[in-house]
Specification:
The complex is a heterodimer of chains A (about 300) and B (about 325). With about 300 residues, chain A is an all-alpha fold. Chain A has a single domain, classed as MetI-like (MetI-like fold, Orthogonal Bundle), CATH 1.10.3720.10. Chain A is built from 13 helices and no strands. Chain B is mostly helical. Chain B has a domain of about 230 residues: Orthogonal Bundle (MetI-like fold). In chain B, about 70% of the residues lie in helices and about 0% in strands. Chain B has 13 helices and two strands, in the order ααββααααααααααα. Chain B has a two-stranded antiparallel sheet with strand order 1-2. The longest helix of chain B is centred in the first third of the chain and has 41 residues. Chain B starts with 5 loop residues before the first helix and ends with a helix. The chains are: A mainly alpha (about 300), B mainly alpha (about 325).
């Protein structure tokens, strides 16, 4: 499937910017001929189909009552039902998992953004001795494969008896969320004109005052992006959550969902229903924030 | 406590008085920069406690023969003390050139490199293609964008299970191939197809990020540059080559680096797609995890040593990448 998309996409890059054919002068820049527009629509529609299908398929399978329906999708048509959803909501640990996921993700988000905000500002505006080292460490932490910290973290947390506790998992996630937020916010603060700081200083504000009264309100979109990223990373993290959460009432969704198949009797229909229930609010949340996403990302990216 | 915003006030180097003694310099530095240090203090503390200390501890563990049988542990009410001993760099030597080092490390290393290169090339190529398409004046552009971002909006651990249903032996993909008269590969059993499936799923998951970032980059390119190029008679390819690509340079170099790091460290997709069933499709990260937590006894020291090696690979790669970028920029400036 991916090979076909590649072919389409690279081929598509050309009609997109291809030289308009005959009636060259009659069109304004950026508009294109009928054929090119049609080709663009064709490729984009194809890409949309590929993007949509696995999720649509999951939704479809979640309506089949039998656990082997994924092998016989045609049988689902006759007996579509929401029974799987009812069962998941009433007879599984769904709400326990929801609680754990929210506690862990929100905890990480709040700590991550709160701790990182002033640092992002400091590295954006001030040049102090050790500045380069700090930037290097922040960058370095983005590169940590989970394999580097998982063993020592496991040992440390078990000594502190924090295995299978929300706090332990939040602390682990903060090790990536904090430097990432600082880095991202630095990029965002860089886009706020320095003149604002100067004006604040002229009016007699301290750097803290400037930061809290002037810059922080202006940086709301950046803060939203940082918060969103921390939330989504913590929410979707698999390795640490699978290893450190032991009791099935404390599972996050990422672990809970696995428990449907790892059991001897793989309940794939229930799993599909759970997956859909998880995906709906998260995607909705994603679309709410995505307006700020592009700005935040490119600001963080280009200035990094 | 005067200047915190050095850049804004434009303090120049030449203004400086002759160098005072160390004590006064420290005092002066503190007075001048204490705002900065106060502001970075929270992150410094968090990094020290949550990153540097575990890192140092992890490095120490790699120099021992720690596993789950000799580490400190609690069984019922009995606390058992750690009994592992210091063995120096034996773990590293064993991983890199011990017996069966090829099966355990190098084969996974090669596959990890192939995996990273293939995935990032596909991410970037498809992402750029779609971004170019979306950057035109086109009906329904917002709609397309919203749909194309979907694979990114849904958590990976959810979609990977969707893919597992599709890739199952009699799942929809094989039914479709069968319907077209094509052979149906065993996606989740055969090594080649496992790897193929992993790259495919990761590509599907990773393209939206590239697309959105590159679209942002494209939108920030000044339209007058295109007009000027068109005025000079540049055709579409030349405009793409000499206006679009250079305009995207800073975004591209960042997203490619991020893409490489993320793909190299990608855990969830392979772990959730195959679990413990596909030893040959494991990249180094999931392999290290398997050593440390996916088997009995748990090889803590070996797993941590893999982690250190992975980090070393990434650091070396990143510093070369940045140096290469800098050199390119200089060449461009000359």
């Amino acid at each position: 499937m991916s090979t076909t998309t590649l072919g389409e996409a690279t081929a598509a890059a050309e009609p997109a910017s291809a030289p308009p054919a005959a009636p060259r002068r009659s069109r304004r820049r950026g508009e294109q001929g009928r054929a090119a527009a049609l080709a663009s629509h064709g490729v984009l529609a194809g890409a949309c189909l590929i993007a949509l299908f696995p999720i649509a398929w999951l939704v479809f399978l979640s309506l089949g009552p039998d656990k082997d329906d994924y092998l016989h999708p045609e049988r689902i048509w006759g007996k579509m039902t929401f029974d799987n959803y009812a069962y998941v909501l009433q007879h599984t640990n769904f709400f326990e998992w929801l609680k754990s996921s929210l506690i862990v993700s929100l905890g990480t988000t709040v700590i991550g953004v709160l701790v990182a905000a002033t640092t992002g500002y400091a590295v954006s505006r001030m040049r102090f001795p050790g500045y380069r080292k700090l930037m290097w460490i922040l960058l370095l932490t983005q590169m940590f494969p989970i394999a580097v910290l998982i063993v020592p973290m496991y040992q440390i947390l078990s000594e502190l008896q924090l295995i299978d506790s929300y706090l332990g998992l939040i602390l682990v996630y903060c090790s990536t969320a904090v430097p990432y937020c600082a880095w991202l916010l630095k990029g965002y603060f860089d886009t706020i004109p320095f003149e604002i700081d100067e004006a604040g200083r002229v009016d007699g504000l301290t750097p803290f005052g400037t930061f809290f009264r002037l810059i922080l309100p202006l940086a709301r979109p950046g803060l939203a992006v940082a918060a969103f990223y921390s939330f989504i990373t913590a929410f979707g993290e698999v390795a640490f959550a699978s290893t450190f959460m032991l009791s099935d009432t404390k599972y996050t969704f990422a672990v809970g969902l696995q428990s449907f198949v790892s059991e001897h009797d793989a309940q794939r229909n229930l799993m599909a229903a759970t997956a859909v229930l998880i995906a709906i609010p998260v995607s909705a949340f994603f679309y709410l924030v995505q307006k700020n996403l592009v700005t935040g990302l490119t600001a963080g990216g280009t200035k990094g | 406590m005067t200047v915190a915003i050095d850049r804004a006030t434009g303090k120049r180097r030449g203004d400086r008085a002759p160098r005072p003694g160390l004590g006064r310099r420290l005092k002066h530095g503190w007075q001048k920069h204490w705002y900065a240090y106060a502001m970075i203090a929270p992150v410094a503390v968090v990094l020290g406690v949550l990153v540097l200390y575990p890192l140092a501890y992890g490095f120490y563990l790699t120099l021992t023969d720690a596993d789950s049988l000799n580490s400190a542990r609690t069984i019922g009410v009995n606390e058992i003390e750690a009994t592992y001993k210091f063995i120096g760099f034996d773990n590293y030597a064993d991983i890199l050139w011990g017996e069966t080092a090829y099966e355990r490390f190098w084969s996974h290393f090669i596959w990890t490199v192939v995996w990273t290169a293939a995935c990032v090339a596909l991410h970037y190529g498809i992402g750029l293609g779609l971004a170019l398409l979306l950057n035109q004046k086109l009906r329904g552009r917002t709609f397309y964008r919203l749909v194309l971002v979907l694979p990114w909006a849904v958590p990976t651990f959810v979609t990977v299970f969707g893919w597992r249903f599709m890739l199952a032996d009699a799942g929809i993909i094989n039914s479709g191939l069968d319907f077209l008269g094509l052979p149906a590969p065993q996606w989740l059993e055969d090594t080649f197809w496992q790897r193929f499936a992993a790259i495919m799923v990761n590509t599907w998951c990773g393209v939206p990020f590239m697309m959105v970032s590159l679209l942002g980059g494209l939108q920030s390119i000044d339209a007058s540059l295109y007009e000027a190029a068109e005025m000079d008679g540049a055709n579409a390819w030349q405009r793409f080559r000499h206006v679009t690509l250079p305009g995207l340079r800073s975004v591209s170099s960042t997203v490619v680096l991020l893409g490489i790091i993320w793909t190299f460290n990608q855990f969830a997709i392979i772990f959730l797609l195959f679990g413990n069933t596909a030893p040959d499709a494991q990249i180094l990260v999931t392999w290290a995890y398997q050593l440390g937590f996916g088997q009995q006894p748990r090889e803590f020291a070996q797993s941590a040593a893999y982690g250190m090696l992975l980090l070393a690979v990434l650091i070396v790669f990143t510093s070369f990448y940045r140096r290469w970028l800098n050199r390119n920029e200089q060449q461009l400036a000359n």
